[in-house]
Fold these 2 entries.
Entry 1:
Amino acid sequence: MMRDIWLVPALPLAGAVLLGLLGGKIPARLAAVIGASSVGLAAALAIRIALLWFAAPPPGDAFLLPLWTWITLPKFSAVVGLLIDPVSLVLILVISVIGFFIHLFSAEYMEGENGYARYFAYLNLFVASMLLLVLANDLLVMFVGWEGVGVCSYLLVGFWFEEENNGEAAQKSFIVTRVADIAMLIGILILALRFGTLDISTVLHGAVSAWPPGSFWPAVVAGLLLVGGLGKSAQVPLQTWLPDAMAGPTPVSALIHAATMVTAGVYLVVRLHVLFLLAPAVLHGIALGAALTVLLAACAGLVQSDIKRVLAYSTMGQIGYMFLGLGVGAWGAAMFHLASHAIFKALLFLSSGAVSMRLHHEQNIFAMGGLRTKLPLAFAAFLVGALCLAAVPVVGCGFFSKEFLLGAVWAQNPLLWGVGILGAFLTGVYIFRAVFTVFFGASVDVSGAYGVRVILPLTVLALAALGFGWLQTPDFLGGANIFSNVLAPALGGAATDASWPVALIGMAAPLAGIGLAYALHQNGFWRRQGAASPGLFVRFLQGGMGFDALYRAIFVKPFLWTVRVLKDDPVDQVFQLLQRAAVGLHKRLREEQNGKLRRYAGWMMAGSLATILAVVFS
Amino acid sequence: MIVSWQAPASLALILFLLGLAALLARRNLVFVLMSVEIMLNAAGLLFIAAGMRWGTPDGQIMFIAVLNLAGAELAVGLILLLRLRGRLTTLDGDAAVLLRDSS
Amino acid sequence: MIFWPAALLAVVTTAIAVTGKNPVHALLWFVISLLAMAVVFFELGAAFAAALEVIVYAGAIVVLFLFVVMMLSLDKAAALREESWTKGPVWLLPVGFTGMLGVALAWQMLNTALPARPGRAVLPAAVGLKLFSTDFLAVEMASLLLLAGLVAAFHLAREAQK
């Protein structure tokens, strides 16, 4: 049964190929069936494998399925294989199950759109790439999946490519992550040169025995790999693409830019944590960058008027929390937050999509209001998601995972913990700003009703968001350790619980945030904020703290300037001379192409004459 | 008594040059086709002269091949002439310039 | 020695033919040229070729030519136009070119090492034997060529299908 793991990425891939080839020739309904069922089957298989795993874990708590030898060189070899261990098992469950529900939701959300089959082809390809990424046994294979999800992200952000902005957003996401990927590729190449293989366990063992902790090379390699992870996970300083990536359809944002792809950076660090442990400086850098990200995302989230941008900044912030956990070495906590975030963020995005579906794709929260009674299902789902995101005590999985994570951070570095608490407070403020603005107050008109393909994913994800947290609870709530016990063979034991006061502050912060959001809602402050033209500082926050302008000034402008300068450089002039000569000659010669038989015959004659004269009189 | 090979070769050369000059100078396609025939005939004469010089039948066989070629060429050429006349209402070779660079 | 008068006749009639204004007259001059050529062939000991020249060239090909010219139904205007097309300067460049070519080839002919000596007649029987023994493949190819010409002519002769 474990050997069937190859089917898990192969099924969505087959779906993508089938949809890509048949695309426009099959009815839309069939395209949706193919798209959703391929992922659904993969999800069922993943669950079956997980159940078998829990019943009887294989020896060594890892199962490697070698598929074929990709590259054999004298000093390098790469074997394509799929590796199941607790980390990848958790992730394939998250990806395939949430992916399936998002496919289901998409089938209704995208109904009537042009390129319906194309959409599912991309989405299937994405799921296949993501599964390959997490199952890869080899960094090279992982890189294939890594780039595959990048391409799919590009394709799906630019799905509505008729509008120029969407195309630009797609390019931005692609280019920014590509810059990060170059760094990652260099890191991978250093590993390949050093160890002659990219098989992850071999590399990690080699690194531990070859490099002492804190030495130069592990810091370089870990730093370069980290840059790739930061780019993919939209962390400071490579976060600028994520808000723009919201140009894609909402289910895409739910799947790619919230639940799965953007957490690839977290996965990368967790998978290679042995290497990162050899580079304490890099870990400190991770924690610092993560703290910055958390604050930046929370501040930017406070002033967005587009609901998807609010969620985009919240995604950035929550991944910041994961990196905060990684920075202090709490791999298990980061994984737990990753999984719970995937559930509640997918829920939030899908319910926001469900809201805008009924409002003619309106996404401005100030154009909404009072939807609590009009769209009770979307409200309930969004509320559950918001409660999880804000980490309101005991209610949702977000609380348990954030509690777990911040507890581990407290144990390492109270200052970073303080930043995390501040972020949690601000998160409570901005997400409930959205909740109150969209669902309370004066109501707007809506039309239509939801089909089962919307109701089912929202219900299941909401229930999962409520229940998932109980897999890993703090001591005062039973002290369940199911999740960390699963991960223990790969990542070590669970962190110790935080003390009572710490936990209390952690619980109070989001509640205070929600209270503030409610007070400002009662006060009418949010509405006034939406109506007023934003001041300089607010615009600064809205634009993500000026990173775009900064990068435009530092990178884009100089690059364009260089391009302009190089366009007319002297060397080019020489070549342009050739080109001008060719064009001039061409102009002369084309006059000879006048269609006149006698002229042609004359030229042929002249040519023969020249040849004959040369032969006879030489 | 048969003449030496230079005599028929010179004759072939003169006829060929006459045909070639006419081919380059005439605009009327009837004359152009006729010039081609003259040149082919001159080539045939040269083959026969060569066959005579070495006393082998190959020269005449090649002449038959040339004759054959001339027949086939003329059949197609004449039909094209008629079609052109039907389409452009002229026999002027310079009027048929559909192959020119139109821009 | 009838070779020289015949050769002279061929050159003169050909010159008249290619410079003529009336296609029908030109073709008739061309027929005389071909008949003169047949005499030349006979004088060169190629009786079979001479017979073919008369029968196929003068008899069939040029007559086909004449039929077509007849179908063109040329009038006075065509003759006038022809006059303007063959004014002096038109001939300048072609005659110059061909003159140069002629000089080059004549030069080559005079300087060739092949000695002048009388040739030998080749009887029709020799031609036929060779043609249908070792050269039968060439015969087949010739027939294919004619067939292709026939098909092409037939195809082109049909009115364009609407």
Note: The helical segments of chain C are 3-19, 23-43, 47-72, 76-85, 92-110, 124-131, 136-157.
Entry 2:
Amino acid sequence: MVRYILRRVMYMLITLFIIATLSFFLMKLLPGSPLNAEDKLSEEQQAIVLEKYGLNDPIPVQYVNYLGGLVQGDLGISFAFSNTPVTDILMDRIGPSAQLGAQALVVGTILGVLLGLIAAISHNGFLDYTSTVIAVLGTSIPNFVFAGLLQYVFAAELEWFPVALWGSFEHSILPTIALMIFPMATAARFVRTEMVEVLGSDFITTARAKGVSEPGIVFKHGLRNALIPLVTVIGPMAVSLMTGSMVIEQIFAIPGIGEQFVNSVMVNDYPTIMGTTLMFAALFIGIILIIDLLYGLIDPRIRISGGDS
Amino acid sequence: MENKEIKDLLVPMKQKEDTSEKISSPSRTFLQDARRTFFKNKLAVVSMITLVLIIIMSFVGPGMNDHGIDDQDLSRAKLPARVPVLENISWSGFTGVLSDEFQGDTVEQATTNAISRYSNQEEFIDIEVLDEGDGSRNSAEVKATYHVYEAKDMQDQYYWLGTDTLGRDQWTRLWDGTTVSLLIAFIAAAISLLIGVAYGGIAGYYGGKVDDVLMRILEVLVGIPNLVIILLMMLVLDPGITSIVIALTITGWTGMARIVRGEVMKQKNQEYVLAARTLGQSNWKVITKHLLPNISGIIIINTMFNIPDAIFFEAFLSFIGLGITPPDASLGTLINTGFDNIMLYPYMLVFPAILISVIMIAFNLIGDGLRDAFDPKMHK
């Protein structure tokens, strides 16, 4: 097990190294520098600015410096906000994104599991169809469409919630709902399919025959077994939360990582773009690693061996 | 007595022609079964019809009126949707009027607010008092309805879905945008399919060292989140249809390759493959003639789910400003412009948002239908 974890962490570091290298050289291909035409700098001043960013060195030296910085958690200095290290920018903005992502994931998954559970219990009944419709809509309709709908109806027309910006808990409600639709719908679909299958299996019949109460069957015997495979869809959920954070933070003007990324793209702020990309990559790879490890722990049928995973 | 009753119950069976050997229904091939199951699924069939209509409209739609995709004219910018006949039905949303509620301390003040909002075209604004107010701040409320088309002296003009901020016809742009979005999705899905099937097929069929090498490469690629790759590619490449397709296909084929490899490995040890080989079929023939048809179901299902993914990613990229650039339109760029005007001109967002949702739902339902259709357990 320890060997397996070490091997996976090694893989993870190699992947991150590849991504860092890839993004470094891709960014070098692009035009654009921290200099801009409005400042009207003399050539000496330009040289000083370039020196500050280490852009006077040959590219291999820059590359080594960049990797060296990465190891120490230094992602470089932003082009757009001069003198601000990218790490500081990201640290400033991680709060709202993390809060939003956590709220959406937790509330979405819980609601989704409940929805799937209700659907499975009333198999082929009215509630089943209703929750299936919700699940299909939730997985199909893009989250920015939901965000627009929520913003228009509940903020602009009914004025129940603030239209945008970040601050109190009320500000986070609409973005959370928009962001949680996909995890919710995915979980609902998954739990329903699994529950229908589990509830039809022999050990449930045995439990019934032994006189276990209906709630006991549904929750203790059914749900516990149906939840295990849910771990596998956390990956797609994580992706949807990341893409979602870019779009939804932009729509609701929330000062998070996603919004920073989109704004950096607009102004060609390469160090920030690279830093954000690396952070997204690290987050995603980390989540996948945790899922794989969890999966081995939860489901005893899956034995993690040193061989093929 | 009792004996008699039992005797009555036992009626001698009439001699009939031998029917025991008759087959109750004609035997069907797997594909016929699949087709039957699919067409029994009403949702999938409705989605299929909807999608065909949308595809036809995406070609025919732009030509249905004589506004071009990039006909800019600021004098007719931000016109609301107006459709003949429907314009007379006040709740249809196609009446060609703008309306909103305005507040003020008194009715007059609210009215002044309304008039100044609608370019001071007083004679074309209908005012309806909702709340007289009591003189306190923003207590009075009026509903103003602005007849834009009359005010601009364009009563004979119809912009079915209105115009955008540059005065371009939304109907034309919507269908042109749909063409672009669908085109990107279909090409990306097709290329992913080709690469994925070839890669997975080779790895699965030859196995051994080839498989080892190909799978290690794949493992590294899968480890890199596709979102990151797509974003990096979009930054480097010039924005446009080709770069979106490239960015989407670079990561899109890996899922297909894994599935195809697994299926091929399962199928290649079956007797029919052995038979074909014994009869001297070349590897290429075995793959294309025997293996591919047998795994086609899973390939089709996977592709059907790849298409809506591609549509979503295209819209997402265009939305965050990395996708299609003006004057070209895609559903993503239209939605992006719509968001900029959501409070004052919601119609700019509504139509592209509805269309992309319908397309995504349709593709997902067809995908679900196909998955059931290719599942032997669902055949009746």
Note: The CA atoms of residues 37 and 218 of chain B lie 35 Å apart.
